[in-house]
Design a protein that fits this description.
Layout (H helix, E strand, L loop, with lengths): L1 H13 L3 H15 L15 H24 L2 H5 L11 E8 L6 H17 L9 E9 L5 H6 L8 E6 L12 E7 L32 H25 E13 L10 H18 L5 H5 L10 H11 L2 E8 L11 H24 L4 H14 L12 E9 L3
Parallel strand pairs: 1-2, 1-4, 2-3, 4-5
Antiparallel strand pairs: 5-7, 6-7
The structure holds S-adenosylmethionine (SAM).
Length: about 400
């Protein structure tokens, strides 16, 4: 979803003809509903979000295929079977962490399976000797029913769901060969406690994010992300076999860019300002806003590299910025803002409902929409867009 946000920001900043957007949407939706995914009929998949997010998934597909071709020794990972499978069939285990409900997770895992098969073809290990097991992971609140109802009917793998937070252990030791995660690792396990504690010097009063907060608040988010990422890497370090791969896409800020100058974190301020208006109009209490912060953090390539190197379990094999598709011409701004709000609503509605109650959700997002239209984050050149990093790590052989 963060990728979607970045794409929409890009659309809003650089413009896009409504006509062109609709043509593109039609093309992509027909591509999505190809024979393989004909069973996917949920309205969810028709949202603009999914159409736009498809760009990122396609881009990452090429990189993952390359990563597997260049970095994965399948024979070494799963054994030395031959065309006659003398040792019996062997299992290649894949996990997608923060999979949501589809469609992107299906595209990603299918690409991983296809790329491995392609790699095996010229090798002596026969395809019939390998079975693929895919674990779909997300938080327990994820709609796993929808995920499983949407599973492609024709798939080359066995599917299982694994509920729970990915910052801790989810799988047995040395049981995974390939771990994938897209647009999920910028979500923190929780908001840093000190920023919502009125007694703390880091109390983030009147704001719900760190973009324009005092530096101490920002540092609390930095520390929480670093702690979460270390826990994530340590858990995967236990679960992934030596030589196994961990590939993820994470929305970032360019190195050296202050968060106050990037439209990704700045959007949180716009939502915060809509909430503060509701406080001034007596619709919600100030305490409710002060005790609410967005549990997300956008790292930078340099910061991420340092965390990975410190954790020590994985070597960095690839780290690339995903190219954005070229965005031509003039946009219809109202479409742009509607897309942006729809995207954020999909991501944040649950949190807003939990904090402010069901009755206020529509109000919050209507106000957010108006604030976005008034804001300068898409027009002021001071605000730079975020970048999407594709990162490929290899588990060191202990
Ligand atoms: C923006 S969606 C990305 C979905 C999908 N990977 C994609 O690329 O379209 C982020 C997903 O990460 C999940 N998520 C966030 N924090 C998580 C955690 N600690 N453990 C597992 N899943 C998490 C969310 O529930 C959500 O489904």
């Amino acid at each position: 979803m963060a990728y979607t946000a970045t794409i929409i920001i890009h659309l809003c900043r650089h413009g896009y003809k409504t006509q062109a957007l609709l043509v593109l949407g039609n093309r992509l939706s027909s591509a999505i509903f190809n024979v393989r995914y004909a069973s996917l009929r949920s309205v969810h998949f028709l949202t603009t979000n999914m159409i736009l997010q498809r760009w990122g998934v396609e881009k990452a597909k090429e990189l993952i295929a390359r990563a597997i071709a260049e970095n994965l020794n399948v024979k070494q990972l799963v054994g030395t079977g031959t065309a006659s499978c003398p040792g019996g069939r062997t299992t290649f285990s894949i996990a997608d962490l923060g999979c949501s409900v589809g469609l992107n997770t299906f595209i990603a895992v299918e690409n991983i399976v296809d790329s491995i098969k392609l790699k095996l073809n010229p090798a002596s290990l026969s395809l019939e000797c390998i079975e693929f097991q895919v674990f779909f992971n997300d938080l327990v609140s994820n709609d796993f029913n929808l995920l499983f109802k949407s599973l492609p009917s024709e798939r080359g793998y066995f599917a299982a769901g694994v509920p729970g937070g990915f910052h801790g252990r989810l799988f047995p030791s040395r049981s995974l060969h390939f771990v994938h995660s897209s647009y999920a690792l910028h979500w923190l396990s929780e908001v840093p406690k000190e920023v919502v504690d009125p007694g703390s010097p880091f109390y983030n009063k009147g704001r719900i994010g760190y973009a324009t907060a005092p530096v101490e608040v920002y540092e609390a988010f930095v520390a929480k992300f670093s702690e979460d990422m270390e826990r994530f890497l340590n858990a995967r370090g236990e679960e992934v076999v030596g030589g196994g791969l961990l590939a993820f896409i994470i929305p970032c800020l360019s190195d050296g860019l202050p968060p106050s100058q990037c439209s990704l974190p700045a959007i949180g301020d716009v939502l915060g300002s809509a909430l503060m208006d509701m406080v001034h109009q007596g619709m919600i209490t100030e305490d409710k806003v002060d005790s609410f912060n967005l549990p997300r953090y956008h790292t930078s390539p340099k910061e991420l590299t340092a965390i990975i190197e410190r954790s020590g379990n994985f070597s960095i094999e690839m780290m690339e910025v995903l190219d954005r598709p070229p965005m031509p011409e003039v946009i219809d701004k109202s479409i742009c803002f509607r897309m942006m709000v729809r995207h954020f609503r999909a991501t944040l509605e649950g949190l807003i409902r939990e904090q402010f109650g069901d009755g206020l959700v529509d109000q919050v997002f209507e106000r957010f929409s108006k604030k976005l239209e008034e804001s300068s984050i898409f027009t002021d050149p001071k605000y730079k867009p975020g970048v999407e990093m594709f990162v490929l790590l290899k588990r060191k052989i202990a």
